[in-house]
Every structure is written in C-alpha cells, then in structure tokens.
Amino acid sequence: MDLNYTQGQQQFRATVRAWLEANVPAEPLPSFDTAEGFAAHRSWEAKLASQGYSAVTWPKALGGLGADLIQWLIFEEEYWRAGAPGRVNQNGIFLLAPTLMEYGTAEQKARFLPPMATSEDTWAQGWSEPGAGSDMAAIRSSARREGDEFVINGQKIWSTRAVYADWLFGLFRSESGSSRHHGLSFILMPLDLPGITVRPIRQLNGLPGFAEIFFDDVRVPASNLLGGEGEGWRIAMATAGFERGLMLRSPARFQKTAADLVALYQANRERCDGDPAIRDAVMKCWMDAEAYTLATYATASRLAKGAKIGAEASTNKIFWSELDVKMHETAMSILGARAELMPHAPQAEGIAQWLDGFLFSLAGPIYAGTNEIQRNIIAERMLGMPRA
Amino acid sequence: MDFSFDDQQIQFRDAVRSFLVVQAAPELLREHWETTDSGRSPELRQKITEQGLTALSVPEAYGGLGQGDLDWVLLLQEVGYHGIPDSLSDAAYVGIGIVAALDDEAFKSEWLGRMCEGKARLAISHPLNPLVHDAQIADLILLWHNDEIHAATPDQVSLELNPSIDASRRLYKLTWTPSDATRICDAQRGQAIWAQAVNRAAVSVAAQMVGLAQRMLDLGVDYSAQRKQFGKPIGSFQAIKHHMADIAVKIEFARPVLHRAAYALQHGDAQLEAKVSHARLACAEAALLAARNAMQTHGAMGYTWEADLQMFMKRAWALESFWGDRLFHKQRVAQSLFAEGASIGPGTTF
Predict the structure, then answer these.
(1) Who has the most CB within 10 Å: A118, B62, B280, B294?
(2) pLDDT (tens digit per residue) in B107-144
(3) Which of A294, A316, A380 to mutate to test the interface with B (most CBs of B within 10 A)?
(4) How far apart are CA B256 and CA A288, in angstroms?
(5) CA triplet B202, B204, B207: central angle to 5 degrees?
(6) Residue A388 in contact with partner chain B when CB distance is under 8 A
(7) Is A102 a catalytic residue?
(8) If you ran DSSP here, which 8-state letter would residue B55 be given?
C-alpha cells in the first residue's frame, strides 16, 4: 500500500489542470436538455477530444489517452474541480464504449468509437419499455431478421438524451416466441432512420431530458448487431455493470458537491447552527463523499492487480445515489425559503445549482436499475441469498 | 498510488482467521465469559501467543515481529469478527505501542519481552474510558495522569467491578494515587504518546466494529437461509434481503476509510485525528446497523440469550463508546472539516 501519487501521476494532474484552467468556459453552458445547450456541449466534447480528454481511458488509436484507472480518477478530480461542463455523451463514452471494446468486431470499433470520442455521434440508450422497467427481461420490442437486415418494431421509453442524440443502442427480441433473457439481441442504430419516432418526455424540471421511441418497421443493417444474435442479455448486463460500477459516476463529482455543501453551510452558519442536525448532515455528507472516493481508489487498485469488478458495483450505485440525494436535501434545508426558487429567479443568484442538482439527484435511485433491484442483486449475488 | 494490501498481509490475515475459527468458537468464548470470574482463558492466550499476535508490534530489537498498523488493521477485523475480548487488542496493540514509545530501556525490555512470551497482560486507564477493563488480572496497568504515564500493579490500586451487558467485558472503577514512584513518563513526552495511543485504540475499535458487522451479516444471511415461513426460506423475501444488503453497503464503504486511517497512523498525517475518527464513525455505523438488522432477521430468536447473535450485538453496543464516544469522534472530524482554510473537494483526499 502506497498512498502517494507517482511523479508521473502528479505531472498528469498538472497538465490536465493547466489545460482545463485555460479552456473551461467561464460561464456555465445552457442545459444539454435544450437544443442550444446540446449543441454547446457537443462542441465542448469536440474540444476535449482534441486533447484525448473526452475518453482518457480509451486507447490512443481510438481517440483516448490510454490512461489507467488511477489516471482516470485524477482526470475526473481535475475535471470536477475546474467546474467543467456535464458530459453530454456519457451514455456512449462511459457505457457503450466499454461494451463495444469487449464485444465489438474490429470493424465496429473503428467505425463507432472515433466519432463517439469527438461527439460527432452522440448516443442514447434503449433499455426500458412500458412493460419492462425493473423487469428488463420482459422486453417485447422485436428485431426480425430479414436477410442482411433486422426489422425493428415496438417501443422504448425513458431513453435519456434521445431527443437530441444521433444514435441508439438497445435490446430487442430477435427470436420470436423466446422469453425472458433468451433470444435478445444488442443492436445499434441511428435515430434518424425511417420509421423511428422520438417523442420527448418532460422531466421534473420541465425539460425533455428523456424520450419515448416508437419503431415502425425500421430496417437496420445486420452489421449493427453487437455480439452474437441472441446474446444481448449477457452483453447488456456487462453494460449495466459498467454503469453501476466505476465509470458513470466518478467520486470527484460528489466530492465537489460535498465541498460546495460545506461552503454553503459555512456561509449560512449563523442561521444553521440553531439546528444541530444540519451540521451533522453536512459532516456526514462530506464523510460519505470521502468514503466513496476511498472505496473507488481501492477498487481501482484491485482491478490494476487483475481483479474483476463484481456485485460490489451494486453497492456503489446505492451509495452514491443516496449520498447525492442526502447532499441536496441538506442544501435545500440550509437554503430554507429560497430553496424553491427556479434557477433563473432573480433571488436565486448563486444558488441555482442546488435546485437543479436536487431534482437530478432524485433520479439517481431510479435510473441504471432501481436501488431496490440493486439490493436484490447484492443479496443474491454477493451474499448468496435464495432467489424468490 | 496503490490502495491495496500485499499478498503477505492477506496471507497472515487468512492464517489468523483459520486459527480463530477453530480456537475461538462462540461456545468456547461463552463458557469463559459466563462461568469464570476473569472471563479470560489462559489456554487461548497461550495459543494466541504461539500465533505471534502478542509479539506482532513489539520492535524486532526487543524480540518481536515489528509489524505496524496496516498489519494490525486486517487482524483486528478478524478479532472483531470472532468476538475476541478487548484485553488482546488493548494489550498487544495499543499497550505495546505505549510501552515501545517510552525512553526507559530497562522497563521496555522487561515488559516487551514478557509480552512477546505471552507472560504479561496490560490494562490501560485513560479518561476517555471511565472504567478500566481487565484491570483485575492485569500484570501491569498503564495510567494517564495529566498527560503523564504511570504504571501500577492491581494491588497498588483499588478496583470495583461494574458488570456490563457485554458478557466479555470485565470493567472496574479504578481509584489510585499518583506518585513519583508510579510515574514512568513526564507529561511533555506523554502527551504525544497518549495521542498516538488514542488514535491507535480508535482504529482498533473501528476495525473490530467492521469485523462485528461482517459477523452479524453472516449470521443473518445464514439464519434467513434456514428459517422457513410461508413454505420458503425467509431469505427469499425482499424485506429480509434488503436488510442484509443495507449492511453489506455500509461495510463496503467503511472498510476503505478504516484502511486509510491505519495507513495514516503508520505513516503519519497532518489530519490523522479526523481520518481516524471518520473511520471510527463509519465502522460503528456499519456495526450498529448490522446489529439492528440481523436481530430483526432472527425474529424472536434474536431476542434470546441462546442465539450467538447476542454476543456480537452486545460487543458492538459496548464498543460504540469505547475509546471515545460518537460525540468525541464527531467533534474531531468537525474541527478538521470546518477549520478555516480546510483543504477539501476533488483531488484533496490523498
């Protein structure tokens, strides 16, 4: 055990810090759930990609830096420290890409990854359906093989970023009459194909952060199949592992919120200290953000020695999502009567991040597999408890 | 940057685990706790000595193994898991740390040598703990007095037994009169030694708490697999699964905090107190939740003297305020976190 950064790691941090300080936009970009904001975030991603910073863990040949996990953590720490924009293409870069690297053909990697790194292609995911949420194996949307094509029919829902994204990856039933985990295929497709209708769904904040997608005899080339026909479930589970595991939510994000929360508390201390529960909650949030960081460094160290990430990915997802809610709830109680103000309200100056963050945090225990499902996974796969 | 243990550390931990599974089975411990005055077993102490645990942190120059806090932090989780009473950790880890830091060579040689051979029990009296455990059978009691360190034998002090709900504990109200004859270290030097001892003891308690949490989780999972209701093992019901999963989450995010605290102890750290207290709070949270949820999972069996769960639950309740209660540790974290110019946020963890 050696908890010192190497000279190389310190140098990497300094280089990233200098670049971010020179390049991060002075004003926050508009929300990427607006057309204008999506375009601005796409340009920012292209700028990141010019340095290999949009996907630091990818091989250099595909647009990354070939960074190891410790370097990735350092990059993320600098990124959040600098207050840089949210990652509009995270579904692609952090979720689909690791799956593509593991299951994709050489041709697929060369075709999909470089434009993903630059966000020339942005990605949405197509998992849930009206009748298949937590019970994802109940998927009914179909992919019927006809020669060199799949013909897609059905409906997906809660598809994050789908309103403005270019491509979709998702699970479809390719074997008619199959049930549950069998007969599913993992298919990639552009969202502008004939027969696709994307209908925006407004979220709690009023913006169309997700969408439902209708497929009406959509013809997709068979070369867009990822992995083998009928192997979709196994491949999707790998993607879900990355999502709940390390890549989707780096600890730096929560450390930034925790530090902001401490500052908010300090600035309002006179009023807050009448209620010792507030100080207690602020402290607990900061400690938990540190704990998440430490746990991630420990996991990264184990993975570097050849370990595989397992069901502990589910403990991560529960921990960070509940921490995020707790941090924002605490901020709301510190803000008191100003907490309800919309970000553009004149009296909300300087506190706009908290309401936005509060609303977003509430989605955390739901997306990427609800926390109830994660607890089942922990119980059954980590603790070996009997299935229902 | 490598936040993992090496193979040798893991192997030693595994060896101690295998040893304790056999030699410290619940029925054996309960017999000592429930039927003897001292609650301790000379035979078990002898076997523990043969495993090298009492010599582990004695410096090599004094015949020991010279191992540090990072080795101990793994072993202490096993010590907690198996419900080994406080006398081992406070003597072989915390107490030896105090003695080894003294300047008096003759004193050190004598007591470190005896500890290595398993022929001495140390007890510690410190204001964080109003009562002193295992003082009656101690060969030497180390006493705090205005940051000075004193040493006495049980016949030089007066002891009044105070039974604890944790049947492993033998707690005494200790009354004594400090004198030049009992003083072995002055306050100037003693202050730093006591500060390190408090941090070490807090890490020890934290490690045992996370071990206890794991034990109670395992007991809950086992029980829920055997107990059937509505024609099924109760462990197949979500309500029970989620009780167990919640403990697993707490443990998963307490251990790294604990390991970082042990690293800070071993290598020194400007924020040592806050890091240790954070570990202490996180591990206690895991243990107390484990006690609560494991008991609920056991149903009425969890409320009995018969079920082994009670041994571990009661250890956790007692340890919660041992070597600093929750308030003490929260204040130490607060002092660091809310200090002017505190360095927090992304990139400040290490």
Answers:
(1) B280
(2) 999 999 999 998 899 999 999 999 999 999 999 999 99
(3) A294
(4) 11
(5) 110
(6) yes
(7) no
(8) G
